[in-house]
Amino acid sequence: MNPFPRGAGWRPGDHISASSAVSWGDHCSAAWWFDRVLHLPTFDRSFFLIGSELHKVQELQFTRKRDKIEPASMAEIAAMIRTDLEVRFAVPWVKFATGETPEICIEDAICMAELWHQEVFPKVEPQAIELPIGPDDGLRLPGTGTPVKAIIDTIDQYAGIRDLKTAKAKWPDGAAEMKLATQIYSWAFRILFQSPPAYVAYDLLVRKKRTKKRLTPDCEYFEIKVTPDPRLEFGALRRFEAIVQQMKDGQYYPNHSRDCDECSFSTFCSQHFAEQPFAPWVAQAATAQVTEGPKLIRIGGRNGNGTDGTNGESGAREPAGAVERQGGGPDGDGAAR
Fold first, then answer.
1. CB neighbours of residue 105 within 10 Å
2. Which of 22, 86, 100, 130 is deepest in the core (most CB within 10 A)?
3. What is the pTM of this model?
């Protein structure tokens, strides 16, 4: 018997963060549940730690630029990255990719920081950094009034939102427009400033894998700009409302993707959903009155907030209502806030 019943009596508190909705909708609701509700043990993926370190570099340099302070030199940045990552990689619960070592990760992180300084830092004049927006600013879901808190990464001199992302490959065309994060942060900007952002720009740093012919670090930069679209924002907010309801009801599900093998919860997830996939709904079906032969009792399905009850796979592939399958996100870094 699984010691962690579905739902575990959890309910949202006085607000929901935009990062929670993004983790649930753009990545995997089961992983979110295992981490933030059941508090299962996790390991740190080296790629996440690199992304976190690069965000730290960006915040430091943009803050100095905004405050008219001389930015740190590349030598100082490289020394900071090395010191930070050596400490973070020293713990036993960090998971490295095949063929990876701490030194390779550190060299790659420095290479990506150098490229960011070449491509992004000179052209951005930050007007706001790590800007919090919350219910006091009017940030509440329009359908339900649920209070929301969000933090916008950077607002540039053209009133555009900028967000630093790291990835293993360039995102497919159109992926940025369909990200829940794109629309939620655009909505938060509009609520605060009473007008939409000029754009949502992702500064994408792609880390290249080492090969036998290339043993040195290498990376690429892509700027991906999305123009706000009221139709997509409306759909995203309806998805957000559905996500909140799913959280309240404990209707989480695995979102199978290429990242599953690297997930902290992959073993537990397989066991969890194999042993007791939909116990509450099975119990309802067993006690339902049958009038015209056997009948499948649908709880939610494509017309509600749950899966269609046929099996775990259909629920993962076609979540109902406004919550659409996103495949774990094109970046796979889970770093959105």
1. 24
2. 22
3. 0.76
